[in-house]
Amino acid sequence: MNVACPFHIVLIEPEIPPNTGSIARLCAATGTHLHLVGKLGFSIDDKHLKRAGLDYWHAVTVQRWDDFATLRAAFPEGHFWYASKKAERIYTEVTYQRGDFLVFGKESYGLPDELLAENAKSSIRIPIMHPAVRSLNLATASGIVLYEALRQTDALV
After folding, report:
1. What is the extent of the structural domain holding 126?
2. Which pLDDT band holds residue 1 (cuts at 50, 70, 90)?
3. CATH number of 107's domain
4. Rounded Cα distance, 152 and 113, in Å
5. Which pairs with CB-CB distance under 8 Å and at least 24 residues apart come from 60-65?
6. Is residue 3 one of the residues assigned to a domain?
7. How many structural domains does the chain have?
8. Would you say residue 157 lies in a domain?
């Protein structure tokens, strides 16, 4: 895999330390940059966060942002995909490019409705087959979308 041209996973206000730790481990394994945005539901020093990431934290590029607007302004040419169960398009129906940003919302709510409305053409969803299931785990969803992006860009070895 070409780690010189990674993808970016953006977590907006993540709430559950083990999810963020698992996503950090995913990022370490794939050379993906991790962006943590807004108020976190835990401390970066949280033992559960570190345990879930095991000893891979040194291998992850992590950036903290006060808000999403600041992150967007820092990457004016960046292409952002917004993952939500409310989106029309399925995550496999879009074309990813290396360097894309994969944006996920907080576990309890997802992404804000305004953000999704403003970015409807760049919003994607993972189909859920059973009506009793509201959503997938944040770490699971991140892995599904990231590995599709890696597959499409021939980044898998």
Report:
1. 8-152
2. very low
3. 3.40.1280.10
4. 28
5. 60/24, 60/27, 60/28, 60/34, 61/6, 61/27, 61/33, 61/34, 62/24, 62/33, 62/34, 62/35, 62/36, 63/33, 63/34, 63/35, 63/36, 64/35, 64/36, 64/37, 65/35, 65/36, 65/37, 65/38
6. no
7. 1
8. no
Residue 1 lies in a domain: no
Q: Against a cut of 0.70, is the pTM above it? A: yes
Q: What is the pLDDT of residue 55?
A: 67
Distance CA 106, CA 148 (A): 21
Residue 98 lies in a domain: yes
Q: pLDDT grade, residue 65 (50/70/90)?
A: very high
Q: Pairing relation of β-strands 80-83 and 62-65?
A: unpaired
How many residues are present in the chain? 157
pLDDT digits (tens, 9 = 90+) for 77-96: 999 999 999 999 999 999 99
